[in-house]
Design a protein that fits this description.
The complex is a heterodimer of chains A (247) and B (380). Chain A is an alpha/beta fold. Chain A has nine helices and ten strands. Chain A has a single domain, classed as Rossmann fold (3-Layer(aba) Sandwich). Chain A starts with a strand and ends with a helix. Chain B has two domains: 121 residues, no CATH class; 218 residues, MetI-like fold (Orthogonal Bundle), CATH 1.10.3720. Chain B is built from twelve helices and no strands. The radius of gyration of chain B is 32 Å and the shape is flat. Classes of the chains: A alpha/beta (247), B mainly alpha (380). Chains A and B meet through α2, α3 and α9 of A and α9 and α10 of B.
């Protein structure tokens, strides 16, 4: 049994069907990359997985336990499943250190000194210890996104969702963020990435899922998907990525 | 192969550049002599108007036997100061001539610089002249009918003798608005949060807080104060019936301004981008924790200017308590004014209300600036 099982989920915005019976399985320590055209539901899928959005049909199970629908403790679910957003979403009125320690102190009940020590340790690990007292606005996009990853990690999540985390970054800042993701993958963190960084996906992913028509249209190891996709839609999508000079 | 959705024009490619393209910015500057002459003409007119008004003030002062050496010196000084208008006007004229000269010598860049300077000096002249004209109009109003306006509103001797009493009564206003403002800050936030509670369970709470804000924003403050100030004692309710008029005023103003401030809070809270809520919730913070640590602290920073607006409104409305007989500054001043048949004490109160708002505005500007410097990029 896979650690995360997404079974036959459906969701509509009015007439538009985002998911039309989508299913997906994620094993522990896997890095799953979601690719596909804009509006195919990559981000929405991630947001449904930690309860930021609700699904209308089907179910999501973690270790066989149903984690969708009424009665789920979403606050606890979100401790298990962390998420990092495209636009960082750091809290602008708090320093870097306050951003990282807010949830450990208020949600996990850690005392401040303990939480700050852990936060500083993590910040040191990503080389931003000296920015601990700065406000997010004074940091570059890449630095802000690294802090956002640390903020999610400070809660000790079992799974990490990364929602196009490099899409808002200047090209030369992308690598500093991806290096952290690379390290996390090496340490065995289970991750789902919605991404347009095909080169990176090819490198770190255990599995590539091409989302189209509200379903996982094609999935497989990166070596096969990128060199020999079987589906016409997947080929057309990848062809456009190549035309744009991104693969 | 790949079918693209967008239909490009096929056949012989139409040019993207179009046909009619040429440079436009290299033309010589326009002649600005007209502007500089107008500036000189306006200056001469304003100076004559000023001198005539100043001599009017002097003769008005001598008819009421209150001319003094210092007064005359000030008037003469004003007469000289107004001559400063000639400086930009003359500069404008000079630069216009310079522009003509350089253009004749085919120095296009020099001509452009001089033209721009001439125009700028002409505009400076008009700007200052306009303000002088407004000040002259005000001065004319005050000296009209043998200083009637000045005497009615600004009788210095009466202002001086009544100041202590008025100031003492003004403490009542300060007491009322300080207590009311503290209560309004708390009450307004409670109402705003009640109105924004999510889910079906909170529907009745949202409804009642909407009804409250609609009612008390629509109800004139003066009627509210009147009803509470006279009505509650008549009801004979224990404790409530024995409160002071000031307490009734605080209660009424809190109810009225609580409704305004709740709406200000609400707009501030709604202006915080949903992605901030998403970030907080996805860290496991509850709805109330998200409000408390993420949304409200950011919202409060944004609503400080409109909040100050409402507070200044509240401060001014403390003058309405005279309808329930409380001796505030306005009521006190009216009593003195009717005894002396002169409005100068009321002017004092008016000035007091204006004076207390100015430092608040500056203080708030300073606070916002400091907060932004701390959080924004650039410069330590």
């Amino acid at each position: 049994m896979a650690m995360i099982e997404i079974r036959n989920i459906t969701k509509s915005y009015g007439e538009f069907k985002v998911f039309n019976g989508l299913s997906l399985e994620v094993e522990e320590h896997q890095v799953v990359c979601l690719i596909g055209p804009s509006g195919c539901g990559k981000s929405t899928l991630l947001r449904c997985m930690n309860g930021l959005e609700t699904i209308q049909g089907g179910e999501i199970r973690i270790h066989g336990d149903r984690m969708s629908g009424p009665g789920v403790d979403v606050n606890a679910l979100r401790r298990d499943v962390g998420i990092v957003f495209q636009s960082y979403n750091l809290f602008p009125h708090m320093t870097v250190l306050e951003n990282v320690t807010l949830a450990p102190v208020k949600v996990l009940g850690q005392n401040r000194a303990e939480a700050e020590a852990k936060a500083l340790h993590l910040l040191k690990r990503i080389g931003l210890e000296h920015k601990a007292k700065e406000y997010p606005d004074r940091l570059s996009g890449g630095q802000q996104q690294r802090v956002a990853i640390v903020r999610a990690l400070a809660m000790g999540p079992m799974v990490l969702l990364l929602d196009e985390i490099t899409s808002a970054l200047d090209p030369e800042l992308v690598s500093e963020v991806l290096n952290i993701v690379r390290d996390l993958a090496a340490e065995g963190m289970t991750m789902l990435l919605a991404t347009h960084e095909m080169g990176f996906a090819r490198e770190v992913a255990s599995k590539i899922c091409f989302l189209y028509g509200g379903k996982v249209h094609e999935e497989g190891p990166p070596s096969r998907i990128f060199s020999n996709p079987t589906e016409e839609r997947t080929r057309a999508f990848l062809q456009r990525i190549i035309e744009a000079g991104r693969l | 192969m790949v079918s693209t959705d967008d239909s490009r024009e096929s056949g012989p490619a139409a040019s993207l550049l179009g046909g009619d393209r040429h440079w436009s910015a290299g033309t010589p500057p326009k002649d600005v002599t007209g502007w500089s002459i107008t500036a000189l003409f306006v200056t001469i007119l304003v100076v004559f108007a000023a001198w005539s008004t100043l001599s009017g003030i002097h003769s008005a002062l001598s008819t009421v036997k209150s001319e003094s050496l210092i007064g005359t010196a000030i008037l003469v000084l004003c007469g000289v100061a107004v001559l400063a208008l000639f400086r930009p006007a003359v500069q404008s004229w000079r630069q216009a001539q310079e522009a003509k000269r350089t253009l004749a010598g085919s120095d296009m860049v020099g001509a452009r610089v001089a033209t721009a300077a001439s125009r700028e000096f002409a505009y400076v002249t008009f700007g200052y002249a306009a303000v002088v004209v407004i000040l002259l109009a005000v001065a004319q109003f005050f000296i009209a009918n043998n200083l009637a306006v000045s005497q009615t509103f600004f009788q210095l001797s009466l202002i001086g003798s009544s100041l202590a009493l008025t100031l003492k009564a003004f403490w009542t206003n300060i007491y009322i608005f300080v207590v009311a403002e503290i209560l309004v800050l708390i009450w307004g936030l409670i109402v705003a949060i009640a109105r924004l509670l999510p889910g079906d369970a909170a529907r009745p709470v949202r409804l009642i807080s909407t009804i409250y804000t609609d009612m008390f924003r629509g109800l004139p403050a003066i009627i509210n104060i009147y009803l509470i100030g006279f009505g509650i004692p008549l009801t004979g309710l224990p404790v409530l019936k024995d409160l002071s008029p000031e307490s009734y005023a605080i209660l009424a103003l809190t109810l009225t301004y609580g409704a305004y401030v709740a709406e200000v809070y609400r707009s501030g809270i709604e202006s915080i981008h949903w992605s901030q809520v998403a970030a907080a919730r996805s860290l496991g913070l509850s709805y109330m924790q998200t409000l408390r640590y993420v949304v409200v602290p950011q919202a409060v920073r944004r609503i400080i200017p409109p909040l100050l607006n409402d507070f200044i409104g509240l401060q001014k409305d403390t003058a309405l308590v005279n309808v329930i007989g409380s001796i505030d500054a306005f009521n006190q001043a009216r009593i003195i004014a009717s005894n002396h048949f002169n409005l100068s004490p009321v002017t004092t109160v008016a000035l007091l209300f204006i004076l207390i708002t100015i430092p608040q505005t500056r203080l708030v500007d300073r606070l916002i600036e400091r907060d932004q410097r701390r959080m924004r990029a650039g410069g330590n």
